[in-house]
């Protein structure tokens, strides 16, 4: 190949830089879902299995309640509001509305379950970190009771943050025309809020306050949203959804450990 042809075949530097940035962003976005899926594998490690029992049982209870309420509520609503002469529509509407209600119910119950199970999820996250790194997550002088109390306080603070933003999306949905954006915005926001819930387990164990946690999440927004959306999707899969919360706690712990190691390497 002649030098002229070789030079002409080279890509401009701007295009190469754009490709590098695209691949980096793609890897960042995929990192979250990859760690969420990897959380199921972490639960099977010998040093972790015993600590997932309470979160797993709590998750089974909450998701069973969500499923029962969704089916019972929908069946009662159709009996009340669907006229008898068009009762045949029930077979068309029922599966569509079931999927919609289950998505809403599972998202809501995942948030509630993670808030209630926060102390136990914190202990599970600590055990995962110890198993992965061989080091304790919390300060040596902090007792288990103190760690559980700290997790509960952080959960209440996040509850206010979550409530305000969900209310904003709900009000947006009531506005004509603009309300069309409420559904996709609500889905993305749901993924962000779920990731925030799960991220508090390892980050709270490290003593990071709410503002510092949000700062880390903003720097890796795509990865955290991807993590939350993956958790949201898995919560709709029967049987698998029973283990979503403990798997998400484990996967998020591994994800935050990776981000902290990269941050420390960059600082060094």
End-to-end Cα distance: 44 Å
Supply the number of structural domains. 1
The helix/strand order is HHHHHHHHHH
Query: Rg, please?
Result: 22 Å
Assign the structural class, choosing from mainly alpha, mainly beta, alpha/beta, alpha+beta, or little secondary structure: mainly alpha
**Beta-strand content estimate:** under 5%
How many helical stretches? 10
Mean pLDDT figure: 77
Total beta strands = 0
Q: What ranges have pLDDT less than 50 throughout 5 or more consecutive residues?
A: none
The helix content is over 70%
Report the principal-axis shape: globular
Largest sheet: none
Oligomer: single chain
Short structural description:
This protein is mainly α and 268 residues long.
Notable characteristics:
10 helices, 79% helix
List the helices and strands and how they pair.
Blueprint: H1 3-9, H2 13-42, H3 53-81, H4 90-116, H5 118-133, H6 144-173, H7 182-205, H8 210-219, H9 221-234, H10 244-267
Helix pairs in contact: 2-9, 2-10, 3-4, 4-7, 5-6, 5-7, 5-10, 6-7, 7-8, 7-9, 7-10
Characterization of the model:
With 268 residues, this protein is mainly alpha-helical. It has one domain (28-267). The protein has ten helices and no strands. The longest helix is centred in the first third of the chain and has 30 residues, at 13-42. The radius of gyration is 22 Å and the shape is globular. 32% of the residues are buried. The model has no long low-confidence stretch (mean pLDDT 77).
